[in-house]
């Protein structure tokens, strides 16, 4: 064999063999639960080396850093952020307080303003400082945000069950310690946070015990807002590509059995679609109140916006399915036609669908811009929160 041919084979082997070896090694590593969770949650990646998060004024917030203890003994780092309009009214007393981490938040003026106001509205969310500004700078809403276990200054290691317990702990603190009625609380999640939010509302609204100490709520929340959500982790990873370009598990779909074997070994499933359907069904059966909003950007390169279609479909199936056995449930095709009837086109790659049955309202909104993260600061998300708190345009609702 000529040397030029050998050289060509060697080059081709390097071009295709090295990436394939790296990819296979990556997949094998992902089968190890601890490695898998480190990759999925990325909680070891720290981006605030030069920031002291106990000094939130660096981001321009009227904030009290404190901690919340979960039912299984983990300590969660948390911020309570006051709405700017409220801060202006009490600036003198608030600015006179010591800054930094608060060992006993109950003694602070910030906490008093939340607890003693019978009309105070609270958003529980876990996102980014830019989003906090969008929520608190021009609205009357308080904001409670936590670091999930294993993230930031919180203790523990992230797992599906653990993160749900963390969210339950934040709701429990708001209801039992701060005295905020569930009807004045909006639960918001983005990306992974949508899966956590679906987990906590299932735990608290579907007759289950919310945590290891049996906490549950007896009243419905003001609303649920899911931004850039996904139907389940196995389904999402099947189409996921890093930055929209580098596929993770998509190449394995050529070999269905191998693909199913790999996704079957995911230790945390995060099946939000199933949870959402159950929640909507339970609320409908007891004639409760639910305001559920799904918001996604068309140019989200991390989680495709079609994932919201699955979430919406499952939520609606939970809404329209009849309690009587033997009743026919809408097929996917029939549901699609009904969805189109309720759709308001708001421009290219933009629509709003509103589906109402009784006191349950499910909305899906697609917005052309915002990507995966910046969408949090865009109007559709803030409007979804405002609608949940009662600023609804009833004319949008289809009976």
From the structure above, extract its key features.
single chain; 399 residues; alpha/beta; ten-stranded mixed sheet; Rossmann fold
Can you characterise this structure?
- The structure is a single chain.
- The chain is α/β, with parallel strands linked by helices and 399 residues long.
- The protein folds into three domains: 3-30; 41-233 and 268-396, Alpha/Beta hydrolase fold, catalytic domain (Rossmann fold, 3-Layer(aba) Sandwich), CATH 3.40.50.1820; 234-267, no CATH class.
- The longest helix has 28 residues, at 3-30.
- α7 crosses α8 (192-205), α8 runs parallel beside α11 (272-285) and α11 packs parallel to α12.
- The strands form two sheets. The chain has a ten-stranded mixed beta sheet, with helices on both faces.
- The protein has helices spanning 3-30, 33-41, 84-89, 91-95, 109-115, 129-136, 160-177, 192-205, 233-239, 256-263, 272-285, 306-320, 332-341, 379-388, and strands spanning 63-69, 75-81, 121-124, 141-146, 185-190, 223-227, 241-242, 246-247, 290-297, 343-347, 350-357, 360-367.
Give the neighbour order of strands across the main sheet.
1-2-4-3-5-6-9-12-11-10
Mean pLDDT: 88
Low-confidence regions = 393-399
Structural class: alpha/beta
Number of domains: 3
Count of DSSP E strands? Answer: 12
How large is the radius of gyration? 23 Å
The 3D shape can be described as: globular
Which topology of the largest domain does CATH recognise?
Rossmann fold
Listing every helix as H and every strand as E from the N terminus to the C terminus, the arrangement reads HHEEHHHEHEHEHEHEEHHEHHEEEH
Percent helix, as a range, is 25-40%
Distance between the termini: 77 Å
Sheet with the most strands, sense and barrel status? 10 strands, mixed
